[in-house]
Each structure stands twice: as C-alpha cells, then as structure tokens.
Amino acid sequence: QVQLQESGPGLVKPSETLSLTCTVSGAPISRHYWSWIRQPPGKGLEWIGYIYYSGSTTYSPSLKSRVTISIDTSKNQFSLKLRSVTAADAAIYYCARDVLGVGIDYWGQGTLVTVSS
Amino acid sequence: SSELTQDPAVSVALGQTVRITCQGDTLSSYYARWYQQKPGQAPLLVIYDKNNRPSGIPDRFSGSSSGNTASLTITGAQAEDEADYYCSSRDSSDNHLRVFGGGTKLTVL
After folding, report:
1. Under a CB-based contact definition with an 8 Å cutoff, are residues B79 and B66 in contact?
2. B97 vs A contacts (CB less than 8 Å)
3. Could you give the 3-state DSSP secondary structure of residue A88?
4. Coil, strand or helix at B39
5. Residues of chain B contacting A102 with CB distance shorter than 8 Å
6. How high is the pLDDT of residue B95?
7. Cα four-point dihedral sign B86, A34, A105, A40
8. How many pairs of residues across A and B have Cβ atoms under 8 Å apart?
9. What is the pLDDT of residues A64-102, one digit of tens each?
10. Chain A: residue nearest B96 by CA?
C-alpha cells in the first residue's frame, strides 16, 4: 500500500520560505511523478508542480518564480520550497503521486500551513 | 494557461442519476480526470482517461467526453457520494502542466 506523509512547519512568517517534505512508503520514488497540490481553506485545488525521479521538474506558471521541488531518492522523499510567502499562500498542502495515463492516484493526508507573523 | 469550468453546486435525489460537467478548451485534446473530496479528506481519483475507474471505485461512477466538455455521471447516487468533485486535465499550452477545475459540490437529497 502506497502511503505519503507531509511534514514541516505549520506556521510560516510572511516573506519567509515555506518548506515541506513528503515521505513515501510502500513504493519506490524512482518511478512516476511526484506532485504538490494546495487547497486554501474552503476553496478549490491548485496544482503547484511535480518532479520526476530523475530530478526533472515542472511548475505552475503562477508560482514558478517562487517554487522549488526537489527529490531525495535515497530517503524516498521529495520536498517543496515556496519563497516569499504571503497570506495568500496559506493552505492545506498535499503531496501526491502522479502516474502518466492515470492521474494522481495516491495523496498524502495534507498539512495545513498558516502564514502569520 | 488553460481553464476548466465547473458548476459550483449540483443536487440529486437519492437513487437518481446526476451528471457533473467540466468545460475547457484543453478537453478537446486531453482526457479529464475526476476526483472526489469529502470534508476533511484528501481527494480520491474516481475516473481517469475518459472512463476508467481505479480499483475500488463503484461502477455507478462513469465518465464521458464530447468536444470541450467532460462529464462525470453517477447512476443511482448514494448518500455517501455527497462530496466535492474536481475535474483535472493537462494544460493545452504545455501538456506537462496540470490544471484543476473549480469544483462542484454535490448534494444528495
């Protein structure tokens, strides 16, 4: 059974960097694409970007200038960094597996990140 | 970038059939995926590539597509189907990108 678990600070100050890590168990990270998606409270889903195990990344144009997704295959983890956060970045952040030809088939439980001083 | 448009809310009587739609130019080129999200839970993939169901998804869920519109149909809606439903697809300008619709809140009466 594939499981994903997000970890990281639940509170980030404005203008600072949001950093989250996703630990994958039950499947090697050296296949498929690994995504970050976020959802502001009470709102819809927003795709942030994904990374392939090779390290190749694709980001949402609206966040590209502030986002970095990285991968550590030795730890079966991938990570998200979002720089210069504002209140608009407050959301539940999900990590997920994206399988070509299928879609996002496994999701983490999500972690709420609040932006406040 | 592409946009996917969904009705904000739809309702259906228990046991009846409901269709949830998703419109966007990219859907004339790429299939839609459909996700179900219940309160406090992560989304769940229910339909992929037009009309494929992942293991464990009831066969009352089906998908279809015509032109720039994709549809999710629930035949014989159950109380447990009450949820938010999101469509997703590739972006027509760059097929490496993913885009989500705004979501449809389904109420089962």
Report:
1. no
2. 47, 58, 60-61
3. helix
4. coil
5. 33, 45, 48-49, 52, 54
6. 86
7. negative
8. 58
9. 999 999 999 999 999 999 999 999 999 999 999 999 888
10. A58
CA-CA distance, A31 to A54, in Å (whole number)?
A: 9
Other beta carbons within 10 angstroms of residue B60's beta carbon come to: 14
Contact B2, B25 (CB under 8 A): yes
What's the burial of A113, exposed, middle or buried (CB within 10 Å: 0-12/13-18/19+)?
Answer: buried
Name chain A contacts of B49, Cβ cutoff 8 Å.
101-103
pLDDT tens, chain B, 109 aa long: 789 999 999 999 999 999 999 999 999 999 999 999 999 999 999 999 879 999 999 999 999 999 999 999 999 999 999 999 999 999 988 888 999 999 999 999 9
The residue to which tokens 């490496």 are assigned? B96
